[in-house]
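Hi R.,

Quick one: here's the CCN family member 5 sequence you asked about.
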Amino acid sequence: QVCAQLCRRPCYCPWVPPRCPRGSPLVLDGCGCCKICARRLGEPCDFLHVCDQSQGLVCDYSSASAGTGATCNFEDDEEGCEVNGRVYREGEVFQPSCKIQCQCLDGGFNCIPLCQEDVRLPTPDCPYPRRVEIPGKCCPEWICEAQDARAAPGAVSPLLRFPCQEWGTEWSACSATCGEGFATRVSNQNRYCRLETQRRLCMVRPCPALPAAFPA
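And here's the predicted structure, written out as tokens:
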């Protein structure tokens, strides 16, 4: 009897269906007559204004006795969370973007980054590292440039607004006792007056030739 009172026959629906917010699909109303926007988690609902069943939502009348009206909730009071208009079930893992991964927990969500947040310091073989977005790849990557892209060749760095007092440690001992090795030091003797680890080749003495019985 209630259904017969609410549903009119024949159906009279608007020519243009409503425009729904993101995450709310077009569905038939409770009478199976006109297309409406499905109600989302926590939104008011009734017999005509149905909840989004594709997200596992039902019209919960348990709070109607308190005078607040029925709202869309998970069946069997299952908790979930809503992100960007989409509802995820408790414990469900999802990726809002390729850079982060999240999990729905206790009505909220916890996320972890999928891209490394490492820091690359300048080195002699890569004095100007820069992180850039690569087409077709989600995470940015480090690239090495021959010179700082922000400064023209021979230009004075805009960061240096004071005379640079040169400072540096002594060169370390050669890394090899014989043959070619390298020595290191920390110095600010560069065009940007910033501390960096520098290396240079060194050789204390040539290594003795191995006997013929012991080929290299």
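Confidence is low (pLDDT under 50) at residues 149-158.

Cheers,
M.
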